[in-house]
């Protein structure tokens, strides 16, 4: 994973933090399975598109939660240690990708 | 489902069409599970964000495929029958939601 | 302009239609000039970003209005004449670009 | 401007920094005027939509440049002074708005 600056967050996620994110991802996983069933049942296209939008929105919110924790810990720690430059460049690069 | 104009596409999806979409959704489901494992393993935030971006991109492509089929069949059929107005309004509404 | 299917909409825009779009674009032009002044006055970054978001939203709405008229006229006319295929492909291509 | 944490960036923009951003905004302003002319000339909808996409992309890039400078100065300075919390919340809020 040599293209990233680190392998782990600068401050490990607590059990509670992990569970909150994983639970949100499990709900998203369930929504993706729900769409598979809608396609199998030949449901109306617009109905399917509305569900896809809902997943995109949920996924974006997970992304923002991960980003906020990243800035609060990894980026903040790097800045405090006078090593913010690379971390901020990496952050901007992923924000650009994320907003496409 | 009375907020949608229909329950099913104007032309039923073939077995082959269903399978193509479902296979793409199964891959996306696998990617969502992959992120759960990344969180469990306390992987680096940016690494996780890149994977979330990849899912968003894959999901958007499924949405565009569903939209294209919708226009090719439901919308086109409605227009040919002189009943395009409501169908086009419904399409615009979902496109706006989808692009948020 | 040989990469587009047409030079003009299948049904010409009325004076009134043109003015509505142009007025929205003039407001957007004014907003862009407003941001130039904010930069000149060295205003706070977040304040500037909020204004940029407002312009993006206004611009997106103009795009949706143009898209809706395009579907209501150019795309509908092509479909009625049995020539929807290329027009729908062109529409999907611009929708993908527009949603980036 | 009491909804923002500051009136100005923590480190003033140099003349050169201001000019770079203003020049990009002037080009965008010119592009917006160009679209007004396209509407006046009743140009093809897809042609107009492609130009709107180009402006959105240019505007997003200006937004990212402003965001990067904001993180490099205002956010970094707040973090170094142990006052990162509010600044990071404000940043997340504008990132969410910006990505809509």
TrEMBL record, chains A, B, C, D:
It comes from the Bacteria. CDD domains: BsCsoR-like_DUF156 (cd10157). InterPro entries: Metal_Tscrpt_repr, Metal_Tscrpt_repr_sf. This is Metal-sensing transcriptional repressor. It comes from Tigheibacillus jepli.
């Amino acid at each position: 994973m040599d293209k990233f600056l680190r392998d782990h967050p600068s401050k490990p996620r607590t059990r509670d933090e992990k569970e909150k994110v994983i639970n949100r991802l499990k709900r998203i996983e369930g929504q993706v399975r729900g769409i598979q069933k809608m396609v199998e049942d030949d449901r109306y296209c617009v109905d399917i598109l509305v569900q896809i939008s809902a997943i995109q929105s949920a996924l974006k919110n997970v992304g923002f939660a991960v980003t906020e924790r990243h800035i609060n810990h990894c980026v903040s720690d790097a800045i405090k240690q006078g090593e913010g430059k690379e971390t901020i460049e990496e952050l901007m690069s992923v924000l650009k990708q994320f907003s496409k």
